[in-house]
Amino acid sequence: MGWMKNNDSQNSPASKYWFRQKTYGYGVTPCSAKGWLATLLFAVVVAGGGIYLFGGSEEPPAIHVVYFLTYVGVLVAVFFRLTKSKTEGELAWRWGKKD
Fold it and tell me: What is the distance between the alpha carbons of residues 11 and 94, in angstroms, rounded to a whole number?
């Protein structure tokens, strides 16, 4: 059961990061199981809110669209803050690996 062994990579400073910076462009990508779980949870919560607000009606009231956009905006802000705090270094535009 090698997966249960405590290896040094789990205790290294790099293991506390859930996301890594993208090689090209702006943003981050999950690099650990916790990062993937957080991303999946974010997607499920956004989809669940959409289903809750729009699932039962054929034509939702306009106010539901406003509620959903506000809901998604708050979730994106929280997720962005989480990813920023769990990423090594500063977020910046990247043009690939530097030599």
Answer: 28
